[in-house]
Design brief:
6 strands, Rossmann fold, 11 helices, Arc Repressor Mutant, subunit A, 2 domains, alpha/beta, 6-stranded parallel β-sheet, 287 residues, 9% strand
């Protein structure tokens, strides 16, 4: 009887070697890939029946790869094997084209059962994955969210949908370099050190964050973000006028004075108060 062909995609040698040793008695492991850029080429080369895909692959993570793999190899069965057990991540992986989702902490028996069911055309989600999504709990632990602009939140949303940098750039009508600049800014603000960490955070981002940011910033931060896009993050120099300044602005206007206060009235006196003399005394009629 022909054994099913398996391709393992995992960047940890100990994990991939362990999977190979575990599966070889019943399946034929035809290759191991440890770089996300090489996955599609290796699928074309070895033509596996099932792909074991880690999500945290370098250069291209599993969530970015899934739509391309599903489109180019519609008959290939895909089982995600990952260290993450969040329901939101599992749901997104299946939405992107995976047929099963198993955490790396699963037993050998569970992994074999998942492979059997996925190869049989079924969908398998490990019972270790929560039934409900607790989306938002991770993201809300970061008070630095207040530092993000609406544009940052918009990009996080697209990252959380599994969009690549190029797809985000096309969606927003900006250059890929601008998106990379924003990704780096978001990671710095949140203290996230890896691209997969950013992806995981984006997936867990609660929906209410975007609404709060858009209301609180009132478009001001979005304008600042767009200015960064135009200058690739540089600061303007020299004494030129701000591009947002109105050409008709009054010379008496001051940034410290509310716009509804006339410039010629002291701020601590009501508009109908009597005039004040040179020494602060009220002026009286000479007659």
């Amino acid at each position: 009887m022909r054994r099913s062909l398996v391709l393992i995609c995992d960047d940890h040698p100990l994990m991939s070697q362990g999977l190979r040793a575990l599966l070889n008695p019943t399946l034929q492991v035809v290759g191991v890939v440890n770089d996300g850029r090489e996955v599609i080429g290796e699928i074309e080369r070895v033509q596996p029946d099932i792909l074991l895909l880690d999500l945290s692959m370098p250069h291209r993570n599993g969530l970015e790869l899934l739509p391309d793999i599903s489109r180019q190899f519609p008959a290939l069965r895909i089982l995600v094997v990952t260290m993450h057990v969040e329901r939101a991540i599992a749901d997104l992986a299946l939405q992107k084209g995976a047929h099963g989702f198993v955490p790396k902490e699963a037993s050998a028996e569970e992994l074999n059962r998942a492979i059997t069911e996925v190869l049989a055309g079924k969908t398998f989600i490990s019972p270790r994955v929560p039934k409900r999504s607790f989306r938002g709990s991770t993201a809300l632990e970061y008070p630095a969210l207040d530092k993000l602009t609406p544009r940052h939140i918009q990009i996080l949303r697209l990252i959380g949908d599994g969009k690549s940098t190029g797809e985000i750039a096309d969606s927003l009508g900006v250059s890929p370099r601008t998106v990379e600049f924003h990704r780096a800014s978001i990671r710095k603000a949140l203290g996230i050190t890896t691209e997969w960490g950013l992806m995981r955070f984006a997936i867990m981002l609660p929906p209410e964050v975007e609404e709060v940011e858009e209301v609180d910033e009132a478009g001001q931060a979005e304008g600042a973000s767009e200015a960064k896009e135009g200058g690739e993050g540089g600061e303007s120099s020299g004494g030129g006028a701000s591009p947002d300044a109105s050409p008709d602005a009054s010379p008496d206007a001051s940034p410290d004075r509310p716009p509804d206060r006339p410039p010629d009235r002291p701020p601590d006196r009501p508009p109908d108060a009597p005039p004040v003399g040179p020494l602060g005394q009220r002026a009286v009629d000479a007659g």
